[in-house]
Amino acid sequence: MIPTPDTQPVAVLFDAADTLIELSPAIPELLSATWLGTEGAPSAAAVRAALWEIGTEGGWPDDESDPVARLETWTRFCREALVRGGGIDSAPAARRAAQHILAPENYHCFPDVPHCLERLRVNGHQLGLVSNFDPWLHDILSSTGLAPWFDTIVVSSEVGQEKPDPAIFALACERLGRMPPDCLFVGDSVAVDVEGASGAGLHPVLLDRYGRFPDFPGTQLATLDSLPTLAAQFKEGNPTW
User: Fold this and answer.
1) Phi and psi dihedrals of 164, rounded to 5?
2) 161, 182, 187, 236: least CB-packed within 10 angstroms?
3) Is the pLDDT of residue 111 over 80?
4) Other CB atoms closer than 10 Å to residue 146's CB: what's the count?
């Protein structure tokens, strides 16, 4: 029998970047004059605007399994962000930033993550991770100590599907032995996480750590502190949050 919220606690699945883990410093700061120490480098605010523009054009780096190709792809991306941010066209600066981005030790989990995962696990929830990422996400999860918490980890580059495609959410549910309506999905993107999870039949929860979506009409959290309580209250077809 497929478990339901009436017989087993709901499964909780997460996005990775900006939900559980963060790059330190983040890319806008990484490509700014403060971190690069390069004359003519843009401000973090200008880089952030450039990244938003690049993202809307689908310009984020594609998944690369080869480390050399991955470094070159991220170097080109950082170089483009520097130029669009109104700064400089510097291949050495872009490469230095790309090397930082690709080093697992430069990623950290948010302070609220370990306690949240521990509470969810103690309460009997299955945990999963679904991320649009390269295979080296596993290195990041190992270095941050997060890997052992998850019953399944689904990485887009390894399965040939990516969010918001419903197929990648369905695969994660299948690996957990759960039906989509028996699962919550927590992520920081409305278009990729919330709409993708909803389209696949999961119950989405928007984690808006930076206050980017003040008018979002659905279930929304600013931190993960209250997620265990929310998950415990979940009832199929009649969530009580």
Assistant:
1) -90, 15
2) 236
3) yes
4) 22
